[in-house]
């Protein structure tokens, strides 16, 4: 294997800066993740964009925040600003389980070691930088900053927190996928415009002195949220705020959002319109090495990189709008798809990787089968305020053709260096069920599904029905479980036709708002009847900027302001989870007693009453809903 020169990566040390012949650094990026120079890692994308615009960029990856802070000092004062991100995950989701137990590993650290980033990393890093370099602007980005940009409930502290800008003391925040606002910021910074004057850029947030006039820009109208202080006193007002934030975040012609926080005004400018094909291609076509920085070689593999190094992300965004998921909140409701040419170019790059053995692990995206899907008449999309394009029904204006994906899969398959290209991302199965999705006039869904099942399943296929109770599914913004059953029938027919044995892996969540104990018992019975024996179940975690988080904290749905029952205590959550394990002897008596108290002898019979019918099939479940496919 030929060693690449260190200068192929963005610099992590002063020696690497000097190797490039630089006498100073323009921008320093501080990240809670190890530096992997790959388009799936946000710091690499942002750094490469800055580099492409002619800036000299250096990275401080996973700095030590407990010592004399030498990591933060190593590049000195940058010419323009510091950029700060907690990394590809919210640092609290990264650190703690749904039961608030500290995790023993970190997928974004060499060797999977835990302890290389602080809790609330964005705040900790920014405070240090402001102490060391008080006159240097700090720009926040990444998922932690994005989803905490407004008053939000923090599950780990069990309290409302103000915009992360307040606690961090940063100068500006970019929310969502940051390429578009970043290019505007870079252009103005080069012209010498201070951050305090960058007030007309889309998709940024900042704090403004509430006692001075806030100027109007770009013909934006402003919508005001209940203040942070009002939210602290009134949970219903907090819930009502969320609806405004979600609606405005998904509009093409959105309003500016303002919120009073003490003697300051939080200002959130409207988002950019979804990136066009050429724009998203530009981000993916930058000169990544697609490798971790060489400094990590002796520290062991980086698990998150090992998982995606032979994968291709074909699109961003998700129009599902699921209540528990942060993807649409961060990446947007509208899908931005790469060109076929860009995807095939990346496939070609992967085949040159020194460890590549002919297998693509994933041709996917946040939801595997949304590539190239958008409104048939985009003028209708421009006026739309719905948080989901497929709940409660699929929008008649949504083009759900799977043909572009089917054709692209076939072109990847035809590459001489590709033995198999798998789809590892979760498939949105409801798009493939004709009873739910009426937009299948030419049968392209069936053609796609046959291509998928026969050519692109690596042993098993992941789908996410999430629940079996229609009441809970409505809160989740997911379709009725009957459509999963129809999908399974279709899937099984294809398997039988081609003599395949590739189990479906269904994802489910326990303790989600709107779910009661007997709903979980019924879920266990339904999945048992279908031949599933679930080995691991995802317990609901309330993450900021989701409908489910607002319900968990406030007790009401933000769109109706009507009460929604939610399991909150550890005992309630464990009780829901245990029904999944009906096949374990140690839980059988507990399940029988519990269902007797709920007066559900029918469920006792289905779960425990007939041993001959037990375990007709076996599937394992694993997954993290708050952290899937996000940057």
Automatic annotation (TrEMBL):
Residue span, Radical SAM core domain: 304-584
Origin species: Larkinella knui
One Gene Ontology term of the molecular function aspect: catalytic activity
Keyword terms, alphabetized: 4Fe-4S, Iron, Iron-sulfur, Metal-binding, S-adenosyl-L-methionine
UniProt-annotated stretches for the region Disordered: 609-631
HAMAP family: UPF0313
Cofactor note: Binds 1 [4Fe-4S] cluster. The cluster is coordinated with 3 cysteines and an exchangeable S-adenosyl-L-methionine.
Binding site for [4Fe-4S] cluster: 318, 322, 325
Segment forming the signal sequence: none
This protein's name: YgiQ family radical SAM protein
Cofactor(s) this protein cannot do without: [4Fe-4S] cluster
């Amino acid at each position: 294997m030929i060693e690449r020169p260190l200068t192929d990566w963005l610099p992590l040390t002063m020696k690497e800066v000097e190797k490039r012949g630089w006498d100073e650094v323009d921008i320093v990026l501080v990240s809670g993740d190890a530096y992997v120079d790959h388009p799936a890692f946000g710091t690499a994308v942002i750094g490469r964009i800055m580099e492409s615009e002619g800036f000299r960029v250096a990275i401080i990856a996973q700095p030590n925040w407990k010592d004399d802070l030498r990591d933060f000092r190593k590049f000195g004062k940058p010419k323009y600003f510091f950029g700060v991100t907690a990394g590809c995950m919210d640092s609290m989701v990264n650190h703690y389980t749904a039961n608030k137990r500290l995790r023993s590993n970190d997928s974004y650290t060499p060797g999977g070691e835990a302890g290389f980033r602080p809790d609330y990393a964005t705040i900790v890093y920014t405070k240090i930088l402001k102490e060391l370099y008080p006159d240097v602007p700090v720009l926040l980005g990444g998922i932690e900053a994005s989803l905490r940009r407004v008053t939000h409930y923090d599950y780990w502290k069990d309290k409302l927190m103000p915009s992360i800008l307040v606690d961090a003391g940063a100068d500006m925040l970019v929310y969502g996928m940051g390429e578009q606002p970043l290019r505007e910021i870079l252009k103005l910074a080069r012209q010498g415009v201070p951050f305090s004057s960058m007030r007309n850029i889309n998709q940024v947030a900042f704090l403004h002195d509430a006692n001075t006039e806030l100027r109007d820009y770009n013909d934006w109208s402003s919508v005001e949220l209940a203040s942070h202080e009002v939210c602290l006193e009134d949970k219903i007002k907090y819930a009502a705020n969320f609806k405004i934030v979600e609606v405005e975040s998904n509009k093409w012609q959105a309003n500016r959002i303002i919120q009073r926080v003490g003697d300051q005004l939080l200002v959130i400018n409207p988002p950019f319109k979804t990136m066009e094909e050429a724009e998203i291609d530009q981000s993916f076509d930058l000169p990544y090495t697609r490798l971790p920085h060489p400094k990590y070689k002796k520290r062991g593999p980086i698990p998150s990189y090992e998982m995606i190094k032979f994968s291709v992300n074909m699109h961003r965004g998700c129009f599902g709008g699921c209540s528990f998921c942060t993807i649409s909140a961060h990446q947007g409701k509208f899908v931005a798809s790469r060109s076929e040419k860009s995807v095939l170019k990346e496939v070609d790059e992967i085949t040159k990787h020194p460890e590549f053995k002919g297998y693509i692990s994933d041709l996917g995206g946040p939801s595997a089968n949304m590539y190239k899907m958008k409104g048939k008449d985009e003028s209708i999309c421009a006026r739309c305020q719905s948080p989901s394009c497929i709940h409660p029904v699929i929008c008649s204006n949504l083009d759900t053709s799977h043909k572009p994906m089917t054709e692209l899969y076939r072109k990847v398959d035809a590459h001489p260096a590709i033995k198999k290209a798998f789809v590892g991302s979760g498939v949105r199965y409801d798009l493939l069920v004709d009873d739910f999705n009426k937009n299948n006039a030419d049968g392209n869904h069936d053609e796609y599904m046959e291509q998928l099942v026969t050519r692109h399943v690596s042993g098993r296929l992941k789908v996410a029905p999430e629940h079996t109770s229609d009441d809970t599914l409505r809160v989740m913004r997911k379709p009725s479980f009957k459509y999963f059953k129809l999908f399974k029938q279709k899937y099984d027919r294809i398997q039988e036709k081609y003599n395949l044995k590739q189990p479906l892996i269904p994802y489910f969540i326990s303790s989600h708002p709107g779910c009661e104990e007997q709903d979980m018992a019924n879920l266990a019975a339904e999945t048992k009847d279908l031949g599933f024996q679930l080995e691991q179940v995802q317990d609901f975690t309330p993450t900021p900027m989701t409908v489910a988080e607002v319900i968990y904290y406030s007790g009401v749905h933000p769109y109706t302001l009507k009460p929604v029952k939610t399991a909150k205590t550890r005992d309630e959550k464990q009780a829901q989870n245990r029904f999944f394990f009906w096949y374990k002897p140690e839980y059988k008596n507990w399940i029988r007693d519990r269902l007797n108290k709920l007066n559900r002898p029918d469920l006792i019979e289905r779960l425990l009453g007939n041993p001959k019918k037990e375990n007709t099939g076996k599937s394992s479940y694993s997954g993290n809903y708050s952290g899937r496919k996000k940057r």
